[in-house]
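Q: Focus on the chain.
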Amino acid sequence: MIFQSVSFKFSHDLVYLLDLITQNDSDFERYSDRISELQGYAVEIRYPNETIYLSNEKVEKILMIAKNIRDLVTEKMNVTIDYNDIIDK
């Protein structure tokens, strides 16, 4: 959003952030249904009050959604990052 000069309040609310960015770039609209799957983990995982158990399938699914969004963001910024060398191992 900073890259596109979109004003926003700092928030973990992924639906809010997606709504803002789609006003400038409709390519992000394809994630409107899937972003809600990530929404619950935006804060819950970072500041857990209790242990959360997820199946391997669920973890793989939410990671794939996050990686797809990350890839679209870096593509829009015209940035190439080899995440395999950084965090995807």
